[in-house]
Amino acid sequence: MPFLQHICQAFYDSNFGTTIRESDYAFSIIESVHVLSITLLIGTIAVLDLRMLGLILRPVSVKKLARAVFPLTWAGFAVSFVSGFLLFWSEAAKNYSNPAFRIKIILLLLVGLNPLIFHTTIYRRVHEWEVQALTPWRARTAAIVSLTLWSGIIIAGRAIAYF
Amino acid sequence: MSLLWLFTALSHSSIGQFTQSSRWGFAVIETVHLLALALLGGSVLVVDLKLFGLILKQESTRTIGRDLSRVLLGSLTVMILTGIGLLSEEAGKCYYSPAFRWKMALLAAAVIFYFTLHRRALLHADEGAPTLWARTAAIISLTLWLGVGVAGRAIGLL
Which among A19, A63, B118, B153 could disulfide-bond with A130, CB atoms 3.0 to 4.6 Å apart, if both were Cys? Predict the structure, then answer.
């Protein structure tokens, strides 16, 4: 048995995972929290991305908007990560072989790279372009990549239940 | 003409025929519904937190309200259209579902509030620090939209 599958099986077989799985309401409630916190996470990211594309809020500087939404984005990330992990815990053995789940994890890893690259490159010089209505092409590319990846995460995440 | 008749008609329409017989139709429509939800949730949150005076304090509430209302109304339109598609698949079940009835009531309240009192609060918000009324409007708006989401999630569970 591959190493990752072994870990997934251990989560699945654990008392805690079994409790969530066998409870009448636990999974549904955690899943609802997961969906709502994703709205917080991806909704705020989308607003910032649309600003970086110059589509909305042109009079507001990118930096100010980023500062305003980051606490919300991180709060959404924290809650969706914890709730998502609990969901995984309860059905890890099934998730392991689920193609939608695998794609979602890969997209999550990729979407983590995007802000890493963005913050160490073009965002360093944000003071030069933060008030421009039309942002530099690298900022616009980052926004499009971000919107695409996060949309993919929602699509793959929803599809987990269909496999 | 009762509402039940309308639900039955939708269920028997060509949209209903498609969603009920297609293997992936419902799943795809539901996914688009969720994508638009993220955008709607994000814009509601930023507008209301701004109206409340928590974020972007130096910016114009009017500008933020006007710009994000385009995002909000655009995503709301997508949600209503895909929502009709979802409804057509299980109209009979939804008609009797308390969660669905709550969702529609809360949605109507949220939309009416948005176009009337909330809009007035946004238009007057730039005349100084956020008033008690502006803050109340922000909280009512957030509560109503959150209620729509929670009730919507409950349709699939109850």
Answer: A63
